[in-house]
Each structure stands twice: as C-alpha cells, then as structure tokens.
Amino acid sequence: MKQLFPAKQVMGFVFSLILTAIALAVYFLDVSFTAGLTILIVTAFVQALLQLIVFMHAGETKDKWSIYGNVYFMIFIALITIFGTLFLFSWDM
Amino acid sequence: MEFFERFAIPHPSPVIYASMVVIALTVIAIIAGLTYFKKWGYLWREWLTTVDHKRIGLMYLISALLMLFRGGVDAIMMRAQLAAPDNKLLDAQHYNEIFTTHGVVMIIFMAMPFIFAFMNYIVPLQIGARDVAFPRLNAISFWLFFMGAMLFNISFVIGGSPDAGWTSYFPLAGNEFSESVGTNYYMIAIQISGLGSLMTGINMITTIMKMRAPGMTMMKMPMFTWATLVANLIIVTVFPVLTVALAMGTMDRLFATNFFTSANGGMDMLWANLFWVWGHPEVYILILPAFGIYSEIISTFSSKNLYGYKSMVASMVIISVLSCLVWAHHFFTMGQGAASNSFFSITTMAIAVPTGVKIFNWLFTMWRGKIRFTVPMLYSIGFIPLFTIGGVTGVMLAMSAADYQYHNTMFLVAHFHNTIIPGVVFAMLAGLTYYWPKMFGFMLNERIGKWTFWLLSIGFVLAFFPMYITGLDGQARRMYTYSEATGFGTLNMISFIGAGIMAIAFALIVYNVYYSIRYSPRDIGSDPWDARTLEWATNTPVPEYNFAISPQVNSIQPFWDAKKKGHVLFPDKLDKIHMPNNSGMPFILCSIFFVWGFSFVFAIWPLVILSTIGIFACLALRSFEKDHGRYISVEEVKETEEKTGGAKL
C-alpha cells in the first residue's frame, strides 16, 4: 500500500496550495508594496519549480541534464536581462 | 463607405498608386498562369502542403530573394533622395516609411529567411538525417514567416506603412505620434513571423541534438551545423523577449495600456531596452550561420580541413553568451550613468576577441592551402577584410564616451551595413552559389558570378565608405534631406553611384540564374566542388529521404575520408524508410493567422474573434489527428537511387 500511495505528489499538492494561499494573502493583508512584491516573486518562483519537479517530472528521466540545463540557462538569461535593466534605469540613472 | 475609409493610404503618392496597379496585375497574372497551365494541383500537392525540409528551404530561399529586391528598391529610393542637397524626390513622410520598411524587410524578411533557407536545406543533409525533428512544425514555421512577410508588405498599399524606424522607438511609435495603422502592421507582422522563428529555433536544436548520424559526436559536427545550433540557441533565448515587447507595444496602441507611454507611469525607454535585449543577439543570429557558411566554403576551396575547429566552436559559444550582455550599447546616450555605460562598453569590445579568433582561423585555413578562386571563395575572401573594417568601426562605436559623437549619425549606418553586407549578404550569395548545384542540379555561371562579386564589392565600398566621413561630419541618419551648405552633397552622390552599381550586381544575379538555366551543363554529378562534408555524399537531385542508408561518421569530414582514405560511409543494407506525410494544415492555419493579423491591425474585432477561434480549432484538430507517417519500400528506394544516379550501393 505504501508503494502505491503517491506521497510526494500529495505533499507537493498541499505545498502548492499553501504557496497559493500565501500569495493570495498579500491582497487581503495590509503589507507594504515592497514586502508584497517580494512575497509574490518568491512564492511564484518556488511554485514554478515545484510544478516542474513534482508534477512535470523533471529529473526523473535520462535527459535530466538537458532539462535542468535549459532551466538554469533560461534563469541565467532572465536574471541578466532583469538586473541589466535595473542597473541601467534604476541604479545608474 | 465609412468602413472602407480606414483602408485608404494616409499619405498617397503616384508611386504608391503605380505599385497598387503592379501588385494587382501580378496577382492576376499568377492566378491566370496557374489556371492556364493547370498547376493548382501541383502547387498544392508539391509545395503548399509539403513538410520536406528541402522544399521548405527552397521556399524560404525564394521568399528571401524576393524580399531582397523589395528592400533593395527601398534602398535605391533612399540613396536617390539623398544624392543631392535639398532634393524633392521624396517628402519627409515617404522617406520615413521607406527607411522603416527597408530595415524591417532586410533584417526580418530577407536575412532571417535566407539563413533559415540554408539551415533547412543543409543541416539535415550535413548530419545525415532524413528530415528535421518536427517536419510539420517546420512547415508551420515557414508559413508563419511567409504570412507575416506578406502582411507587412501589403501595408504600403492598404492603410499605410510603418514610419517610426525599424527600431520603432516609443513614444514616437505610440498612438500620439504615429496615428496611422502602420505601426500596428509592424507590431503584428513581426509578431507572427517571430513565432515562426521561435519554432524553427526549437526544431533545429532538437534536430541537431537528436538526429545526428551514427558516429557524429558533437565535436565532429560540421561547422555550419555548429553555427546553426548556436544561432538557434540564441533564437530560443531572446525571441521571447521580442514577443513580449511586441505584445506590450500592441496593447499600448490598441488597448490604451501604458507600458511605453511617457505618462501614467509608463516608461518609453523600456521599449528601447527590451527591443535591444532581443535586437543585439539578433545580429549574431544572422552572422553566426554566415560564419558557418564561410567556414565550409573556405575549407573546401583551400583543400584543407578547417584550422582550429575547437577554437571555432568555443568562440561561437562565447559570442553567443556575450551577445546577451551588450544590448545597452545601442543607447549609450539615453541618460544612464558612466558605470553602466562602461560595463556595456567593455562587454562589447570583448566580443571582438572571439570574432578575431575566427578571422585568424580562416586565414590559417587558407595558409598553404591549394586555393581555388571560385565565386563562393571570392565572396569569402572579400568578406574577411571588409568585415574586419566593419568590426573595427564597431569597436570605435563601442566606446561609450566617443559614441556621443557617432550616435545616430551616418557613421553608425555605415558601420552596420559594413558588417551586415560583407558579413551576411556576401555569405548568403556565397552559400547560394556553393549550394546551388546541390539544390538544382546545375552550377551558376562562374564568369557572371565573378562580375557580380566585383561589382557588388566595388559598389559596396563606394556606397558605404563615404558615410563614415559624412557621419563624422555630422550628417544624421534618417534625415530626409540636407542643405547645400553642409557640404555633404558630393559624398552622398558617390554613395548613390555605389548603390546603383550594387543594383546592377543584383540584377546580374537574376541574369546569371536565367543564363545558367539555359546553358549550364547538367552532368555535374553530386559533388561538383570536391567538397568534404556529408551533404555532398548524397545524390543530386537529393531524394526525398536524403540518404538511402544512414551514413557512418568517423571525423569532421567523413565524405572527404570516404573519397581519399577509404572510409566506408554506408556500411548497412537498404531498409524501408519512414517518412512524414504531407499536410495542408500548416498552410491553412497560417492563412488564418494572416486574417487574424490583418483584422488586428485594423481593429476589426468580430473578425479577430472569428479567426482566433479558427486558429484554436486547427490546434484542436491537430491534437486529435492520428498520423503515423508512411514507409518507402526497399524497391522504391532502389528505383529512386538508380534514377538519381546513386552508384554508392
């Protein structure tokens, strides 16, 4: 019975619900703009990774390295773009 | 009648009315011709529904050549307007539209399909595959590009062309300053064809990663395949940024959002930023496959293998990473501080290093080689010094302090044409001449080809080198005229003469095709250049399955080894071959995309909704469709191999 029960998926599901609840709380609670946005960004990224690993089964097959390689590459590019833009328009203008 | 008024040209002129007549007559002639010669069925069966990478490659090629001439006409009109001071040939608005469409057409609808043509035709042959990884997706890519191009090209007769420059900077491109639908065309046509490019990117990466012939490790791939892989990685990386930026721009124009407006919390500079996050890597998407083609040609005609294979690969990978770190050098003067400008200056200059490595590798490949001065080789040899001049002026522009002098002048215009024409256009013409016998079974005439090369090179130097001088003297780009007192007149006249010589060279290419169709010998075999890589190991004309037997690869030049060192290229026996079926879906889907785009441009919402439903219906149908492809039997393969002259069995 224990082998059949998808404990990882159930835990993942519960955890994703919690993340959603935290994100939703930003709307109802009276937090500052910066704090609210920080919570949203953090929960969004954790949620995305959770979906990718638990429900889209990244890392369970042989082409693990190419999937994670792609993810790291895209995160790298996204960070360059975002921090480059902040560098140009916020920190140095 | 009120409904139709929106389609009128806001800024008509006799030239545009004449173009309308010509377009109408051409369409009628094509329809009449197809009907008279009973070619509708042939067109549908063999071309519109094809998923064969070679035919799709050829369609890209034809579209690219057509767009080359369209963009070329724009260029000649611009040079004619600037040939003399206070010229009245074009007015300011018309000039704006022409330089905008020239830029967009040449980059997105000429250079991109040209490199896609070679990627599609050559890469599966070079890696010994039977087709690309996703043949039907490939057809969708092509038709998306084609419909995007057509949508963009009808803008000048229906509704008016975009006029905010190919960079389409906001707030100029916003509703306030660009009232006509022109910029809507820009946003939506590029969006549609950009989707196609993104799909090609995914398709090519998968093809190269998964479908290489047995024995071909990554470090045994031909250089053009490597260049294609790296270029497509950049496509997948940066095209989403363009997609998002265009979507935001479209929303600003049609749905009154405020992403790029100067009021209500919008930020116009963000458009320039996002545009160049895509735009700078875009130039490397164009130049890397061009480098790949040069590598193939220089190696073949120096009768040597490529010098410094590993450093060639490494430098391309380094270029691809650096290309994503330099975008702000396009707007050094926008007001950011010295720290960020210095950062982007240094990364920009750093790109010169791996590029220099490549230049030296080509020189060392030729060093002590037995060089044959064929037309493709002439282009490659001409490319090296001319492109280096463009690269050096690029390093000049990269210095952010000095850029305040060069910014937005003709110096910049001269620089990027100096890299794109000897870099990309020469490579495309070299590749066209080099691969022509593989594509069509006869060679282009060498004598006319050499005339073309020399005229093009001389015309190029005359047309663009004077711009360096007028640019330093202060002639701004995109200005439709200048006064006599500026003293720019003589140099601009020289530019115009150069542009005229280039036009003659391009006309000679057309004549060369005609001449070669009539007089070129057809008995040239499948390897007329004595080449080294797998694409020449198959028969000419290439059978639809490319290789009857999957080739066995042992080095970076398996075909050469097979010819000279007794390497056995085809050790296996014939087997039945699995091929994909043709499908009309890509063409129909993308035709609906055209309607969708057109109705979006003019904000005809019922039609937008209808065509959106149509698009999703096509996608849903595809999901439920069962298509396992078909098999070509051994007998059929044998028959085809005998017919196409395959003696290799």
UniProtKB/TrEMBL annotation, chain A:
<feature type="transmembrane region" description="Helical">
    <location>
        <begin position="35"/>
        <end position="55"/>
    </location>
</feature>
<comment type="function">
    <text>Catalyzes quinol oxidation with the concomitant reduction of oxygen to water.</text>
</comment>
<keyword id="KW-0560">Oxidoreductase</keyword>
<dbReference type="GO" id="GO:0009486">
    <property type="term" value="F:cytochrome bo3 ubiquinol oxidase activity"/>
</dbReference>
<dbReference type="InterPro" id="IPR050968">
    <property type="entry name" value="Cytochrome_c_oxidase_bac_sub4"/>
</dbReference>
<dbReference type="GO" id="GO:0019646">
    <property type="term" value="P:aerobic electron transport chain"/>
</dbReference>
<dbReference type="InterPro" id="IPR014250">
    <property type="entry name" value="QoxD"/>
</dbReference>
<keyword id="KW-0472">Membrane</keyword>
<feature type="transmembrane region" description="Helical">
    <location>
        <begin position="12"/>
        <end position="29"/>
    </location>
</feature>
<dbReference type="GO" id="GO:0009319">
    <property type="term" value="C:cytochrome o ubiquinol oxidase complex"/>
</dbReference>
<dbReference type="GO" id="GO:0015078">
    <property type="term" value="F:proton transmembrane transporter activity"/>
</dbReference>
<dbReference type="GO" id="GO:0015990">
    <property type="term" value="P:electron transport coupled proton transport"/>
</dbReference>
<dbReference type="GO" id="GO:0005886">
    <property type="term" value="C:plasma membrane"/>
</dbReference>
<keyword id="KW-0812">Transmembrane</keyword>
<dbReference type="InterPro" id="IPR005171">
    <property type="entry name" value="Cyt_c_oxidase_su4_prok"/>
</dbReference>
<comment type="similarity">
    <text>Belongs to the cytochrome c oxidase bacterial subunit 4 family.</text>
</comment>
<keyword id="KW-1133">Transmembrane helix</keyword>
<feature type="transmembrane region" description="Helical">
    <location>
        <begin position="67"/>
        <end position="91"/>
    </location>
</feature>
<dbReference type="GO" id="GO:0042773">
    <property type="term" value="P:ATP synthesis coupled electron transport"/>
</dbReference>
<keyword id="KW-1003">Cell membrane</keyword>
<dbReference type="Pfam" id="PF03626">
    <property type="entry name" value="COX4_pro"/>
</dbReference>
<dbReference type="GO" id="GO:0016682">
    <property type="term" value="F:oxidoreductase activity, acting on diphenols and related substances as donors, oxygen as acceptor"/>
</dbReference>
TrEMBL record, chain B:
<dbReference type="InterPro" id="IPR023616">
    <property type="entry name" value="Cyt_c_oxase-like_su1_dom"/>
</dbReference>
<feature type="transmembrane region" description="Helical">
    <location>
        <begin position="342"/>
        <end position="364"/>
    </location>
</feature>
<dbReference type="GO" id="GO:0005886">
    <property type="term" value="C:plasma membrane"/>
</dbReference>
<comment type="similarity">
    <text>Belongs to the heme-copper respiratory oxidase family.</text>
</comment>
<comment type="function">
    <text>Catalyzes quinol oxidation with the concomitant reduction of oxygen to water.</text>
</comment>
<feature type="domain" description="Cytochrome oxidase subunit I profile">
    <location>
        <begin position="38"/>
        <end position="554"/>
    </location>
</feature>
<feature type="transmembrane region" description="Helical">
    <location>
        <begin position="269"/>
        <end position="294"/>
    </location>
</feature>
<feature type="transmembrane region" description="Helical">
    <location>
        <begin position="140"/>
        <end position="159"/>
    </location>
</feature>
<dbReference type="Pfam" id="PF00115">
    <property type="entry name" value="COX1"/>
</dbReference>
<dbReference type="GO" id="GO:0022904">
    <property type="term" value="P:respiratory electron transport chain"/>
</dbReference>
<feature type="transmembrane region" description="Helical">
    <location>
        <begin position="419"/>
        <end position="436"/>
    </location>
</feature>
<keyword id="KW-1003">Cell membrane</keyword>
<feature type="transmembrane region" description="Helical">
    <location>
        <begin position="98"/>
        <end position="119"/>
    </location>
</feature>
<comment type="pathway">
    <text>Energy metabolism; oxidative phosphorylation.</text>
</comment>
<keyword id="KW-0560">Oxidoreductase</keyword>
<keyword id="KW-0406">Ion transport</keyword>
<dbReference type="GO" id="GO:0005507">
    <property type="term" value="F:copper ion binding"/>
</dbReference>
<feature type="transmembrane region" description="Helical">
    <location>
        <begin position="448"/>
        <end position="469"/>
    </location>
</feature>
<keyword id="KW-0408">Iron</keyword>
<dbReference type="InterPro" id="IPR014233">
    <property type="entry name" value="QoxB"/>
</dbReference>
<keyword id="KW-0375">Hydrogen ion transport</keyword>
<feature type="transmembrane region" description="Helical">
    <location>
        <begin position="15"/>
        <end position="37"/>
    </location>
</feature>
